[in-house]
Amino acid sequence: MKLANPDLLKFQNYIDGTWRAAARTMAVCDPANGELLGNVADGSAADAETAVTAATAALPEWRRRTAAERAATLKRWYQLIVENSGDLARILTLEQGKPLAEAQGEILYGASFIEWFAEECRRVYGQTIPTHNPAMRLSTIRQPVGVVSCITPWNFPNAMITRKAAPALAAGCTVVIKPAQETPLSALALGQLAHEAGLPKGTINVVTGSDAAGIGRVLTQDPRVAKFTFTGSTAVGKLLMAQCASTVKKMSMELGGNAPFIVFDDADMDTAVKACMATKFRNAGQVCVATNRIYVHQAVHDEFVEKLRTEMAALKIGHGTEAGINMGPMIFRRAVERVWELVQDAVASGANLEIGGEPLPNGENYFAPTLLTGVSDDMRIATEENFGPIAAVQQFTDETDVIRRANATPYGLAAYVMSENIRRANRVVEALEYGMVACNTGVFSTTVAPFGGNKESGLGREGGVEGMAEFYETKYCCFGT
């Protein structure tokens, strides 16, 4: 791996300000071609405990620092990420598979959280409360919750770390991060830049490893950890929530989705198709807020499908470092097998396969962009999060009915509405039971707004002022005079 800054390529755990080998190593491979990128520390539960000990020891000094002092350190981290964005993007593409342009976008998006929260921590205020008794003075202050543990996913191995670590550090907390075993190099590179930025030892720790259960138990059950934050599937999230219950930890959980994409007959078709492509095929569909169910009004169904088919056929698929590539591989073979199974089930249940529908010869982790029509609500493709490059189209005729169908899921992360009728758009956006709803766009995530879901899609919010509040406890103070 050729990098302008070779120091970014790390293979050991980052604990207490030092790089530490583990007893074993695990291979990290390029999902596009299977090539070995390196052997990374295969950390254990004991390594996680050491990291928690380091974070606990570092907490008093870090939280005593003024907001301005913490902000200055975080700004240096942000600047180093921006300066090294090319190398960070290359690392991300090689271990995760997304096209280089997407990876570069993720690096800058991830860095923006560090910049935002470095600024926001200087604007965290308490309150003076009008008293109920003249002999008492009432107020509140906001204090850092304590040691924070994070488990992050492979689909956004840079941004899902900064979105959690930045507000925690800005609030005065210390952090232990367990990245996905498929994509540890991005996390370790962030650890190196945090070290260079001057974050004190123990303030941020990165433990890589294949023993997700063992490390996870430490991060969820160690009583020294005050807050746990996770991005991943709902099934795993429920297990981790149960483990957190043993010490009643604060939690933030960004879990699975089943996003509806509703196209009304008054929508601009070109805008709708562009938005659908953006939300469906970014990162080969491996995005928690990716469109999963496409509902198109009967009157514009054929037009929408034809335009979407044309755009899908134009996708250039290959290794993310190659020029012009706009869709890379899926992360591993079992992900390919799962989406293939969902497509076959849909066709067997009566759906029409318009294009795609099978693995590609590029490599074992590639799957063709797939368009299905004639999909019904009872098919697996409509009830399960497909997490792949599958566009599954259904028809509707009635606004009330499509809202009911869109809401008929235990998930509530993201939803999309395409309509040029402002009254309809407002009605539908408000009626959809989702934490985030985008109208006439397929890309909505931003540092300055809260990100998170309702129902079984999670707890809490990341980003915006709400994301900062997740890492504070509010203390009520009562003084007798």
Automatic annotation (TrEMBL):
UniProt keywords, alphabetically: Oxidoreductase
Superkingdom of source: Bacteria
Organism: Microbulbifer spongiae
NCBIfam families, A to Z: SSADH (TIGR01780)
Stated family: Belongs to the aldehyde dehydrogenase family.
Active-site residues, record numbering mapped to chain: 254
InterPro entries on file: Ald_DH/histidinol_DH (IPR016161), Ald_DH_C (IPR016163), Ald_DH_CS_CYS (IPR016160), Ald_DH_CS_GLU (IPR029510), Ald_DH_N (IPR016162), Aldehyde_DH_dom (IPR015590), Aldehyde_DH_Superfamily (IPR050740), Succ_semiAld_DH (IPR010102)
Entry-linked PROSITE patterns: ALDEHYDE_DEHYDR_CYS, ALDEHYDE_DEHYDR_GLU
Name of the protein described by the UniProt record: NAD-dependent succinate-semialdehyde dehydrogenase
Domain Aldehyde dehydrogenase: 20-476
Keyword flag Iron-sulfur: no
